[in-house]
Amino acid sequence: MKEIRIGILGFGTVGAGVVEGIQKNGALMADRTGIMPIVARIADLDIETDRGITVPDGVLTTDAMSVIADENVDLIVELVGGTTVARTFTLEALKQGKPVITANKALLADHGEEIYKTARENNIGIYYEAAVGGGIPILRSQRAGLIGNQIESIYGILNGTCNYMLTRMEREGLPFDEILADAQALGYAETPPDLDIDGIDTAHKAVVLASMAYGAPVPMDACPTSGIRGLSASEIVNAADLGYCIKLLAIIKDNDGEVELSVEPALVPKEHMIASVSDSFNAVFVKGDIVGDTMYYGRGAGRLPTGSAVIGDIMEAASDKLHDVGTPVSVTMMLQKDALTYCSGDNIIKRCYIRLCLEDKPGSMAQVMTIFGKHNISIASVVQKERHESGSAPVVILTQAAKESDFVAAMTEIQALDVSTSEPIRMRLEDFE
Ligand SMILES: NC(=O)C1=CN([C@@H]2O[C@H](COP(=O)(O)OP(=O)(O)OC[C@H]3O[C@@H](n4cnc5c(N)ncnc54)[C@H](O)[C@@H]3O)[C@@H](O)[C@H]2O)C=CC1
Ligand SMILES: N[C@@H](CC=O)C(=O)O
Ligand code: NA
Q1: pLDDT in tens, 301-333
Q2: Does the Cβ of 44 fall within 6 Å of ligand 1?
Q3: Inter-residue contact 283 to 296 (CB < 8 Å)
Q4: Where does this protein hold NADPH (predicted)?
Q5: How many CA atoms are closer than 13 Å to the CA of 27, on its beta-carbon side?
Q6: Which is the CATH superfamily of the domain at 346-429?
Q7: What's the 140 CA to ligand 2 centre distance in angstroms?
Q8: What confidence score (pLDDT) does residue 418 get?
């Protein structure tokens, strides 16, 4: 039986989940692979807090660098989070020839190119399954099971916190802040949770998925991002009345060689499988040119689900190291090209949900419709709600597919109309066709 001696940096939610998982199933992993995982060292700035599991004396330290340098540690698991010390620890471990496993999507999104290149230069691996979709083996599916496919599109619910919050807002109509506090207590949310609710965490994951799908580092500014902050209960009710629910989606598509990439709240049909993905669950739909449609579903956050993905990477890294694989596919796939080209407003075609507030008087709607017509936007349905005491009435419009640039121009003109009494709301309507 071979042994792999693991150094863990960060003994928080995920770090403790990894140790718990190895304590529970380490012998099973050894039976299956012939490699026994041993947690040799754990570094955390706080080694006093009870993490709910016991580790042998001498394993814990506050000094992460000493764990990286320890010659009895074969590989490093980076679970401190953030992009400063995590970057330093990761690069240092790679330079010392130690494979790195990380769950840190922010680190990969901001410094991925430097990290993958350092791994390649040192002929070593970096593994990051937990960074996207938590416990779902989505990256392993992409780089193994789907390796023979051109990726046509990926749609993902990638943030457990937002999906949990949207689910409870829809089901229980509870206030945003109260539900966010619950998501934090359950260990789903980032620190600070703004990363979740402003869509940035989803964008971190989307750029990692897009890099792997299309073979080059993707900068964060290539991913227009909006989150669920400020999403009102009335939008959720309006969507439900029309047969839709609202999900925070990552959208990644190949549009004739250009990559369409965004993170945005979108209306999805209630009968589509993605609408039934609730609570902290994540789901990823991948369409390949050979395989067709595939779907992956599971827990996107939390101690043990995320720990499961990290453990999977530990065992793969151990096997690669013992078999002297060198630079693995998880590195080479991200560095096939220098850069990608991205779609702009003229070649992004989509449907939209639009909610306006119009003065309830003759001609208001006609002015709006004239603007849509002028910008080649065809209307699928219009519902005017009861007018408010103020004399204006909410109007909910679903459009047919049109160019993003035409939507932008039309919305600017509509907002400037005298009859438009508050800022219009516009969201993507995604019917996956
Ligand atoms: N919590 C979750 O469900 C998921 C988290 N992740 C990612 O996993 C990583 C870890 O997340 P959590 O475990 O939730 O965070 P956490 O905040 O619970 O744990 C981080 C731990 O690192 C320690 N730490 C910070 N700086 C350190 C340093 N310089 N040296 C040693 N220890 C240090 C902290 O004291 C803390 O105990 C993050 O990158 C996060 O984005 C990824 C998927 C899911
Ligand atoms: N904060 C993230 C944690 C997992 O990546 C989430 O809510 O999904
Ligand atoms: Na994953």
Answers
A1: 889 999 999 999 999 999 999 999 999 999 999
A2: yes
A3: yes
A4: 105
A5: 1
A6: ACT domain (3.30.70.260)
A7: 19
A8: 93
